[in-house]
Write a structure and sequence with these properties.
This protein has 380 residues and is mostly helical. It is built from 10 helices and 4 strands; from the N terminus they run E-E-H-H-H-H-H-H-H-H-H-E-E-H.
């Protein structure tokens, strides 16, 4: 993760093998200020274009998509800029859990390989956000510098005469705007993929392994005790995740993906055969596809955590009385301890606001995107 562009002050220390949050330097503060200022200027320019200039429905949808998306990206990364310590604690907890190989020693290798493949896919998604998104935006900026809400549209007015200073101003605006896009893309990638999705993947992987082990007919008391300890460790990770993401970040993610998906798909349909007339139009199907994948991955993983943890809790409740009956040497003190532990195995919930992600959440979000897209198309 290139720290040169990342706005967060969270970095991985090779010496200590853990994430640390360093105190922002003057350069870091200046970088954050410039990036947020440029983003704010783009948003203001977009809102001014919508309110004051006579543009078509296509340009209006593009301005709405761009302005609100930038705003939601800033909202989603701002908590890690203000207070990175909870996120650092969560990342180190996830890393510690993943490095502890003794948690699941009896899991089949093919199941491990499948989850390792999903982890690699998440890393590929991070690269797409890091490289693909800023390249697409920079390319669109170079192809259409006067397209609102880009800042180049400010100096493309017919009242402004082209000269050396105007050309220099255009070059300067395109440069700082491109750096802002790169910073936002890298910071958002770190926030969504590294901080959130990798943590969610770790929890889902652990619950999947535990579900597989719970399905085996033979289980002794020691193994049951070990599984309960791992389950409660996963509950702690889920609690840390909810503390970091529940109030602001995860709702921003969901709103961002749904909003981009709706407007990008609407623009795709509105352009129709003209979609291939301009190279810059490729950003719309790219955005639509990327947000669809993000919604499905986020919703499915979070929903599976809830579903599988519920199944594990049910199996624990069924298994442990049988173990007590089979093993007659269990003391009353340990039996009471096991009873409390089993009862505390409540379903894990990845929360956003006052709600939580269920297995049907991605389908609900996709249905919302489809309905809203159809309404916008019929409206225009």
């Amino acid at each position: 993760m290139p720290s040169l562009f990342k706005l967060q002050s969270i970095n991985f220390s090779v010496k200590s093998h853990k994430y640390i949050s360093k105190r922002p330097s003057r350069h870091d503060k200046l970088k954050v200020f410039l990036s947020l200022s440029i983003t704010g200027a783009i948003c203001v320019n977009g809102l001014y274009t919508i309110a004051s200039r006579d543009v078509g429905a296509l340009e209006t949808n593009f301005c709405y998509m761009f302005v609100i998306s930038l705003f939601l990206i800033v909202v989603s990364i701002f908590p890690t800029i203000l207070d990175p310590d909870p996120f650092v604690a969560m990342l180190n907890g996830v890393r510690q859990f993943r490095d502890k190989k003794t948690n699941f020693t009896l899991v089949p290798n093919n199941l491990r390989k499948n989850w390792d493949l999903l982890h690699k896919i998440s890393m590929i998604l991070s690269i797409v956000y890091d490289i693909g998104a800023p390249m697409a935006l920079i390319g669109l900026t170079l192809l259409e510098p006067s397209l609102p809400p880009f800042l180049g549209s400010i100096i493309q007015s017919s009242d402004i005469k082209m000269g050396v200073m105007t050309r220099f101003g255009r070059f300067l605006i395109i440069s700082v705007q491109s750096l802002s896009f790169i910073s936002l893309a890298v910071s958002f990638s770190f926030q969504f993929v590294i901080t959130f999705f990798v943590s969610l993947h770790c929890v889902a992987e652990g619950v999947a392994f535990m579900k597989r082990l719970c399905s085996e007919p033979i289980m002794d008391m020691d193994r049951m005790t070990s599984m309960l300890q791992v389950y409660h460790h996963l509950q702690i990770l889920v609690g840390q995740t909810n503390t970091c993401f529940r109030k602001v970040v995860l709702p921003s993610f969901l709103l961002l993906f749904v909003w981009i998906n709706i407007l990008a798909t609407t623009i795709n349909v509105s352009l129709g055969p003209k979609l291939l007339d301009h190279l810059g139009n490729c950003i719309f199907p790219f955005s639509s596809a990327l947000t669809t994948v993000s919604i499905l991955l986020l919703g499915t993983f979070a929903g599976l955590v809830n579903k599988w943890s519920t199944q594990c809790g049910t199996k624990f409740a069924k298994q442990w009385p049988l173990l007590i009956h089979i093993d007659g040497k269990v003391t009353r003190q340990r039996r009471d301890w096991m009873s409390r532990k089993v009862k505390s195995c409540s379903p894990m919930k990845i929360k956003f606001g006052n709600n939580f992600m269920e297995i049907t959440t991605p389908l609900v979000l996709q249905a919302l995107c489809t309905k809203s897209t159809i309404r916008l198309i019929l409206l225009h």
